[in-house]
Amino acid sequence: MTDTLAERCARLQAPVTELVAVSLSAAYRPQDLPELTRAIGAVRGILAEDPSGLPDGAFTQWLPIALRNLDRMQEAVDRGDAGASYAILTDKTDGFIRLTVGCAGFPGWSPDGEG
């Protein structure tokens, strides 16, 4: 099960990094909204995969919230409000900071930005 989580976290690294970058960019450049939609879809594709092989813990507890956040982010993008989408992504309680907690201990994931 830990191997499944490690693999999922590894596959999320690049798409989530891109999601963060494009989310910030789109907040200032409306022409980046289509790219933000694509980035949301890429992350959703991985997070929506079958969770049955994942161990119970921070990642799986956040997973339903993450999918709901991605829905809310896309709704904001559809309204042309990339700033609201970015606020959902970076929410300090339920945002993607919880992914860094869920993937902590695996290469490239650390809530404090190291590792």
From TrEMBL:
Source organism superkingdom: Bacteria
Protein known as: Uncharacterized protein
Species for this entry: Agromyces intestinalis
Lineage of source species: Bacteria, Bacillati, Actinomycetota, Actinomycetes, Micrococcales
